[in-house]
## 1
Amino acid sequence: MSEPITRRKILVNYRIQASRCSDCGRTYFPPKFICNNEGRRSKMDLVDYFYHKGTLISGSVVRKPTNKFSHIGSFMSAIISFEDGNIKIPGRITDYIPPEEELDITEFIGKNVIPRFRRLYTDGHQGLIYYSSLNFSFEDDYYPYQDYVKVEHSNVSERAGIVGYGVYLPKFRIKSEDESSLGVKERTVPFVDEDATTFAVEAGKRALIHAGIDSRYVKKCFVGSESAPYAVKPCMSTVCQVLQLGEEYAGGFFSGGIDSQFACKAATDLFIDAVALVTCPTFGGEYVMIIGSDNSQAERNDPLDFTVGAGAAAFLFGKKDVIATLDYYVPYTSDTSDFYRREGQKYPKHGGRFTGEPAYFKHVVTAMKTALKLSGLTPKDFRFVVCHSPNAKFPYSACHEVGFQKDQIEPGLVVKYVGNLYSGSSPTALASVLDIADPGDRILMTSYGSGAGSESYIFTVTKEIENKRERSIPVKEQIENPHRKYVDYNTYRKWKEIGA
Amino acid sequence: MTNSLSLKIKPHAAIIGAGRTNFGEQWYKDPEKLMIEAGINALESVDFGLGRKDIQACYFGSFLYQTTNKLGLVSGYMARELGINIPMNTTEAACASGGSAFYNACIAIKSGMYNVILVGGFEKMTDRFNKIIDDLMFAADPYEFDAGFTFPSLYASMMARYIHDYGDDQRCIEALAQIACKNHHHAVNNEYAQFRREITVQDVLKSPLVADPIRLLHCSPISDGAAAVILTKPELARKYTDAPIYVIASQQATDDVSLYTRESLTGIKVTRLALKKALDEVGISMKDIQIAEVHDCFTIEEAIFLEDSGFYEKGKAWKGIYESYESFKNSKHIPYVKDGKELIVNPGGGLKADGHPVGATGIRQIHECFIQLRGEAGKHQVDKEINLALCHNIGGTGGIATLHILTRDIYE
């Protein structure tokens, strides 16, 4: 597929775009600009079904796929009806592995499905990667349906902070088999069609739903990742196009942003910048979205390979209906080569035990202690403390060293169940404590990125958090989701490498 | 002659010769050579003789030649192979490329512009090995491709919905397998057919899954082959043969290329539209048809045709198929029966067993009806007097259909 064809298809595929006759209401997918009922050029409005729920009306298990899809193996393709048959579209069922024996498709007819933004196929290792939202998962499976309701804001804070967040953890998991995983009991595994970009979109979508804000008012988006599918071409522009961040104009959007890179703190480093932007009159926008997303990379059988997970967390910053104000910020950086990946290399290298004391602990503990000193607070003033979590032992030891107790540390140690999410690690830990935080609670968050640096943030939770809670999908709920599915090591490697 | 119909229309054209190649794996022949082999066979079949120089125009149908064999400008290849420099046109209409070429040729004859036309269809599929699975999706839309669909899985979606809506019965599952068994049975004595062996219902139901609920033996095969017929004006036909076959209806209808946008998953609108126009054109009904070449790319399509044509009521074809097969499975040809009326479908094995070199199929259907109506089908000749035959050629999953009705004896 050529680049211009790809661009044309993106406009339809990312949001399931259809056209609707303004006279008779008949709707067409793919969109067309002449209504059959009129027989002449009609006024057609564009509509999309990205946040809609569909119904499977028939399908098949494709056992002998086209070469483009052969990497997936067997899968279900289906015809999906929206709005009781107003439009029908074809889609691939994702997050679903059909059995080897014949599947009775008739039992799936009538099931509700939810659009999912996923990778389709690529033009080889050097060509484009194609994405689409014409993929669906079953509503009664792992991924719950959420309506996107835009809520009028009720108050404006003096101090900016978090207005919403969303975490996306894939359905699939792998269990740890031995002690080499440093307290990581199980880890998230990307499905065969997922990568850092698809995670970022899912997390961003959930953050928008949680915040209840209109995506048009998000004027900047940063995506931090060290496993971005392209060396040059941002995840951010894909996230922007799918989630329609900023005012739309001619198929593009009046918003900006970049992909950022600083190992595992690529996203969190920008929290302070987000706060600065939304309080800067020149910015002219209301919200900034920051996403940490990684299909965490590790070479086969490297020690990292037994701790890495996959997923993303997105945070929206602004001044309206803030759920947690950002009160203090302490960065700390040094040129410490503990973990790195050269251009063109597939997997990172690391300095083994050197990644511990002189790298992780030095930076994390320094930032934490300085934040306490700067704020005049003590560990007792905090309900929760969260850190970047390459495993379960490092963050626990660092927090303990600074004076935090188990009940303050444990709630954020989700690494035990999701693995090291790299750029998504400390943001996911933050989300997991926000899920259960009460108004007035203080949270100390410290990220770490190899290379090396840390920053600590102190947040204070507001009462607004309670108004938005029903629109979130808590991290714990995802961790314990009964539909999560375990895969073996070879499957994990195969899927991870396809999306690497 | 037994036919007592009074046909109200003058024929569009007359067929005076027909030829074809074997269908199957043709490892040693290029597509244009296959086409010429079929064309020369058609020329040589003309009873009173016809030479290449007598042909005034050619109409070819083919689907994937540009992809499978990197060919373009078919006319130029055929002009070189035939050594003639006449007008030639090529039609692409997916699996209905042959039927559409024939439809266009009938219009050309009827226009009065030409006296003698060669119509051919060809396809060379095996050169692509498994890449042909991707290639065939040119006959679907890109959204279906991007949803992971393959051609079998699109038809499987029809089959699943049909079973869901009408066939919650083991006999329905068996009936959809019996169609394949019946067509294999018909092909056993067809010297050109790709599969000349019997298969059982159990063979079908135990064959590998391709796209649930479609299994390998529900599918027509990947084939190479070509077929050709010679058309002339009806009034000139007896100059070339004492037994011309007349084209008395020639219709085409179109619908959305995409299965998902169509009104129904259990019916093919283009079949209903084109068939109604074809029957009305002649002033007959479906019950007058004695043999039908039906586009059984997958067995579900033959079942759906039996309903779209009105031969069986909507949702009840599987019962008719099941009962007919059980009653006649030991006969030379296994007819479908409704109220005592018999219809033999795909007497040479259809796409399923004769083979399905996509662009050749529409012309192969005409060839089959030509030899059956003339009593020249040899060992697979139907054992009854027939005078009305129908050819049903579908493109894609129902984006286009051509319907032709052929007869031997016309009664004014």
## 2
Amino acid sequence: MFNIFNLAFRNLRRYMRRTLLTSTLITLGVVAVLLFISIAGSFKNMMIGQVTDSMLGHMQVHKKGYMASMDSLPLDKNMKGKQLQKVTDELDQNSNIEAYSMRIKLGAMFSNYKETTNIRLNAVNPEQELKTVPMLAKRIIEGKKEGLIAKGEILVPELIAKGMKVKIGDSIVLVATNKDGSVNAQPFVVRGILEGISGPGGRDGVIHIHDAKSLLRINDNGVSEIAIRLKNIKTMESDFAGLKQNIGSLKNKMDKPVFEIHTWKKLSPFFNIARMIDLMTLFIKVMLVAIVLVSIMNVMIMAVYERINEIGTIAAIGTVPNKILSLFVVEGFLLGCFGTFIGVIISLVSIAAMNASKISFDFGRQKGLLLSPTIGATDVITISLIVIGISVLASLQPAWKAARMDPITALRHV
Amino acid sequence: MPVVEAKQLEKTYIAGDIAVKAIQNVSFTIESASFVSFVGPSGSGKSTLLNMIGCLDPPTKGSLQVVGKDITILTRKQAAIFRGEHIGFVFQDFNLIPVLTVFENIEYPLLMVQNWPKKRRTEQVNTLLKAVGMADQGHKFPSQISGGQKQRVAVARALVTNASLVLADEPTANLDRTTANHIIELMKNMRDEFGTSFIFSTHDPKIVNNAETIFTLEDGQLLKNGGGNHV
């Protein structure tokens, strides 16, 4: 086998023009696939980051049944008392959790003393919230970002601020109905205007959790949801499985689950977009790999055609068909390895160059987003193995043809 | 032991509905270390006969023993192995591999067919290069040497595996008269030095005279009752 590798390598070296042509095709294919994966991955990660780091967190815990009636922001499905304590104890003990934030979600009437509209609100503890969704402060497009929110203040969603013509420092009134049906009102000062983003909670205003409790006349420690931030989003599935096991399995006296826990994938419609990006990436990969396959097959068929006389000669002098087959397949394999190696080097250098040059771009209303393409070792290895495998596959048919060639016919070929 | 023994050999090609008899009822015997020529006009069946002796084309009928082996029953793979072990080929168009040097062309059968170790390969190739007078040309590519030199390299490649039999189909057809005579002389010398039987085909009467045994073919049949005309 070593002799076949040796001879195949020598053939590739001597048929330099053909080798360079085929390798270039393979290299271009590998570069295109790897750069596409890294850039598409960068966009996807950026969008996931927007969703998780400025709004949802990586996971959320609710009382069982809350998600099903989330649109009506039910206050009777808050977690409280011992139930809540069990959850926070579990979260405190889990070393994979970076932070968590307890929220009360409520609906209210928003009045600027002239007009009234309805508003959805997130009542948060600013310290917990900033640790859990650190990019939330960046969504404050007007007003003070530091500290997020203080008692008596409100961050008004952009659309409501425009519609109701409120500015920073204006006084407004929130009117809310508590779970017992009584109505209460409370004045607030507009601290900032909050940029709206797509997805659940993306157009909610923000108030301090103490204000929500006084507005809703809640005397206990009840909260609507707990948003969780993990230390590493890559371990989310295993962390989720662990938390689901520990928190999701807690049962009430009627032996029914008390809590439900979901990852951002379940909570945000963006997950479907992310899946579409993945699907698109897969299609592009398949297309590029198909191009590589057809290119190599074409070049190898031409190579066999050009070398018919040579094949006839080596067959006549006693080279068995299997060795002829192996020779051409090994040539395809070496071409694949060479083209892939160069392609990987070029791709990694290009990715490093893109990161070093800090390319920024605008996406919708978001300005100066930094393109930070990355590629995982798994992707590089997978693509390399696929392309090398495809190179071998593409060589098989021409190699088979060469091996099956009748020596007399081949020798007569001009 | 005869190196080739053919009895009642026939080869028929089917072209559409027509059966063409390329070889008909041919019997002959060639002893080892012979220098034999098959002569005859184009289309007389010389190449077909050589192809059959070289296990490249099986006969339609008859028996054919080469180096004591019935080659009519060999499979494609067995035939390739047999060729690699016992038969060398010299072609009219030299058929050297263009991207290999003279040395590598001669080395090829030892490397790919017989798997000789490198040191032994190198010694054998150098011996053959010297024997065919190409000792200082080993590094050159086929495109850098003359037709006569190419055929010398082809003879060396045919002999490098210590073949019992070398088949040369019109080996001088693409060479000028002087070079052709040199090649025939070289093959004769190689026969003397290595004890290899040489069978070649030609339709050039001036080259034929160099053969020690001549078989004349016409329309696929051997003249003179198939017997060799010893010169």
## 3
Amino acid sequence: MSARDNILNKLRAGLAGTTPRPDQFDEALVTEPWQYAPEDRVQRLRSLMEAVHTEVYTLAAANWPAKVQELLDSRKLSNLLYAPGTEYGQQLTVHWAEAGAKQDLLAYDRPIEDWKEELFWQVDASITSTAGAIAATGSLVLWPDRHEPRLMSLLPPLHIALLKASEIEDNLYGMMQKQNWSAGLPTNLLLVSGPSKTADIEQVLAYGAHGPKELVVLILEDA
Amino acid sequence: MSQRIPVTELTSSFRGRATDALADSQLRTNFRVAMDSLMQKRADAFPDEDEREGLRELGNQIKARALSRLPDLLEQLEAKLTENGVHVHWAETTEEANRIVHTIIESKQGSQVVKGKSMVSEEMEMNDYLAERDIECLESDMGEYIVQLDGEKPSHIIMPAIHKNRRQVSKLFHNKLGVDETDDVNELIQIGRRTLRKKFLEADVGVSGVNFAIAETGTLLLVENEGNGRMSTTVPPVHVAVTGIEKVVANLRDVVPLLSLLTRSALGQPITTYVNMISGPRKADELDGPEEVHLVLLDNGRSGAFADAQLRQTLNCIRCGACMNHCPVYTRVGGHTYGEVYPGPIGKIVTPHMVGLDHVPDHPSASSLCGACGEVCPVKIPIPELLQRLRQENVKSPEEPPVVKGSGAKYSRKERALWRIWATLNSRPALYKGLLWAATRFGKLTPGKLGPWTDNHTAPIPARRSLHDLAKAHLNAQTKSGGQP
């Protein structure tokens, strides 16, 4: 008998003569306390994210590349990791050429194995899209794929995330339903609620533990 | 007191370690400060009592429902994960689980492992097992890293290094890493970041735990604040997750209340910085993520607890640590006193199933049964009730059928006989009266030494007149003087 059979048999013996409990999931409990009027939704997201050291800006969709440039300039950063195969990626390269931005654009267009060292130590910042956000907990939903790999939002010290204002949901349950998560999840779905942090020494909060030290969210109002 | 006790003998027992811990004022301050703050944070995170209680009830229902179909859910999880490209392994013992992990590492000729925080891997003593086989297994959670660097074990399941203060960490880093001493916590964390980033880059295999395994979608959900969990599960070419068989839940939506309960109860946070949901290895066209993902499902005594309907509730646990944060015993003696992987109230009810009650015979009674743990438990495990049950299992005679591994460690024929006499005396009025009469007359004959009681107290000498006598006299006097009885 395999370990698998032994374990399952023991568990089945323990359940002999019992019936499975009914599913009494109470939707109202996880949604009703976490509902917001449309005008409060962005404010809720912003205040929760700012409380954990996230910078949040609201701006017109057309202006985001210039804002990114400004963020990099003010920090004197020298490069930006981006996703060349996305619409945002194309908008970024167009702006960069037109504005003569001085930061190098690094395209995440090859497997990590080909440039691990560089990705780990030499990238200053990254920019990714989001698949929406959750107002109740102040969380971004990241849906990494071939174009926007998982490490884009983890390795660089500064992560800039683009969020469409129209894609902010009230709560996690609503987001799951709206995007029908249970029908198919990506390799790695992420909720990100601030820059990386730890309180492991004396419970003193320190940012930039292993992931980004800074998180900037650009909320695109008319998108 | 302490001069009379040979400390060397006692440090191998709960009592001895507790005596040492109670005398360590630095340790007591570190814990007191930390637990007070964690209790406050939890309270602040649940401002609405009705919402909190409703959510706890739902959390309990979800776990109870999952356990009521546990074998089916495990099979569903396995099928779904396999479909997603994840390799699923089963282990009855920690030895088996270690062998599985080692075989995976060996097949990749791996020599370096980075680990995200995982209590199950602590249970397995995976670091030691792999070290003996020349594989470096490095902890990457800041707290776990500090503890490992000092050759210690975690003292709290959420805050592993909570027993240390910044000066102790600074000294440790100075001695082990050769860096300058600093009192700046930010700087200390940056030292950890730089050291560990190199390790993430080099690692052949990443190991992690699992907070919830979702049967419906074949998803492993991990929560964390630091990003080390994401690093461990994304950067190395192979990811091995280890988890207990009780971590499975039926539906994806079930994690909504459980997540909220977990992070608010543990740290008072509405959510952790990262919620990491892994549903498979790197797809053919993807550019990062591990090419192989494995899940090791560990039993290690859990099926033993499962067999008993009352003790099964132990497996509701979502490892938030709120019970220890609120425990007056834990706060005073600290996590290391328990001498096992899981300290505090939850440790006392889960450990006996793993190592046998005879290995931790003091655990069920190291509690004042104040009830705080049961009151704050996000999935409503009746911890005090289970402690009482384990006390009974602890004194079972060899003739009674054992339910818990290693039960009966504290069985004593003498004690059993004394209780039988006690029961007889209290159920026969004539005998009781006779004894009372003798006790009030010959109380002076009580021996001066009465076991451990008289180590700290004077022997209890019965009064000349019993409460019965006094009450009777009082009533008589009142009746005579015409007052109301």
## 4
Amino acid sequence: MQGNIACAEGALAAGCRFFGGYPITPSTEIAEHMAVKLPKLSGTFIQMEDEIASMASIIGASWTGKRAMTATSGPGFSLMMENIGFAVMTETPCVVVNIQRGGPSTGQPTMAAAGDMMQCRFGSHGDYSVIALCPSSVQEMYELTVKAFNLADRFRVPVFLMADEIIGHMRERIIVPDTVEHHERKSLQPGVLPFHPDDDQVPGFPEFGKGFGVHVTGLTHDERGYPCATNPKLHEQLVMRLYNKVEQARKEIADYEVTNPDAELVFVTYGSPARSVEQVLHDTPGKKIGHLRLKMVWPFPEHAIREFHDAARFIIPELNLGQIAREFDRHTSVPVVSVPKLGGELHLPSELKKLIGVNE
Amino acid sequence: MKIEIDESRCKGCNLCTIGCPYKIFQAGKKPNRKGVLVPMLDRPERCTNCRLQHLYGRVLCGVCQMTCPDQAIRFRDEKPGETMKVAIEY
Amino acid sequence: MSYEDWYRQDRLPHIYCAGCGNGTIINCTLEAIDEMGWKKEETVFVSGIGCSSRAPGYIVTDSLHTTHGRALPFATGVKMSRPEFHVVVFTGDGDLAAIGGNHFIHACRRNIDLTVVCMNNQIYGMTGGQGSPTTPLGALSTTTPFGSAEPAFDLCELAIAAGANYVSRWTSYHVKELTKAVKKGMETPGLSFIEAMVQCPTNYGRRNKFKQVLDQVEYIRSHSMMRQKYLQLMEQGGAVPDNTIVVGEFINRARPAMGVPR
């Protein structure tokens, strides 16, 4: 199965019933597959006029209680930024799949990159926190899509699936589970103000059509949902809550894989470069090499670094100029070596082996 | 039925003074507590809606109420015991 | 029931300036909805950014106050995912014609079963009176200090060309006609576009020789011309006065529509 198809299938299994999209290489297969499958499941597929509108439409659909998603690539992702900020401010659960390609601008439409890792975290204006998942195989494309929907509904944030062209267009054999985990969206209790947070800082969801009469606004709003844009204290409170509801759960929701935690030399990867590193580990069984593979990059799991207590050097191969290496460096005193690679191709295992002094 | 102007909502734009076919609303002269010149009612018992609504059972004219951008004009039923005043102008 | 019951009484009075026509347009729209007998829990209001777009915040139903110009895509999402909802979009001229122009054309082309009420005050009111795509030629604004050099958009003609099923234009003076038009738009399946010309005394009137609100309303009233009369005049080759606001029903047709509940 192709990575993009696995993503679409995962979304359908997770109960996604609304897809608003716009064609863009290399994510188009997701939209194509959804267009075929959604009408049969009494869902809605709509091709919007641009990515701004796609993002807007899934937010609108999400407020009617549907699980909604869109899929795009770099240039479209940039267009979505304003509405992603709106989704954060209004606490709208939604899933955005970004099959990354070479940038900036039109760049390399048919080649892989991981250049949007910082954009997905900081792209919209203002302070906020989001969740970003990075699959490195077709199987994970399926699993993490399901997970993305569950996290989105639990935290009421936009969740990003940051794959790249390699994973999106790769074909692998996958195991499709009979049932998938389903985290129900917490509904608003009657009599509670629509934006009054529960203990986990996440308010119940006042679905449209249930008689809550909720006013959803991108302006700074109080717990009733009414705009109070000139109240400094309220704004601080609101933004801190939006930030903390994700950040305080970072340990609990963190998703990563650790290989050889007692190694001195540790590779840190997310997305497709993990595959090159796996090959290196496979080829050098005599040498103890650690591997930290992040499946969830944001919120950044800094506690994962401490699992490698003997680490003397972290090597981070990335398909960008070290976006996550810099973030990683902030959290550790151990030397961090960034191995950037641009051009759309993966790091060759031989390149990485040469780097760590293993000759073939 | 009689016309009421809610002074807490009126912003003194005087739009009601041009809509009414009977010219019931006259521009206010004295500012109220908020400094708003709330329009005055000139013989409101001439209002068609006030006179005839109970006969027809629906809002008849109501242009002033619709026009008021600040939702300050209302039609209220008389309190029990209060006499209903009507006047017909030829 | 009357339109009063649709307001969030705890939020009134609203933020609009004294004499602003937006309140009138909301009254008319709510009155039309009241006459339609829609249920509050099945009605959703969507808006973008601007003076007009603050309207849903004063209405008791579920409402989305979204990003600048994007009200129509948000409404598309709501309507397409739950066709049984009645979705009304409040928007302004800058919101709809400038930043949201593309969305407007495509919503009309798709002919989604929405009711779009555009409060056209011919200026960007919220940001302090900048020229908009509907500012008439020669009108003054803060960004057109020597008179607007750009011809203005005719939104109704645009909606017709793009494929909306129902299009009409009225003004804040013609409250009864506007209410009827909005109601008719709501009854028509497919996209109904109702443009309401409103006065903006603070930012448009003040700069364009309308000393009082009433002067501008009087101007709007006296420059309005029924579409039938306008078409007749055009046919006879008669001269149409400058700055005429053509009012009335522009089109009422039955193109295939999307999002109509079955």
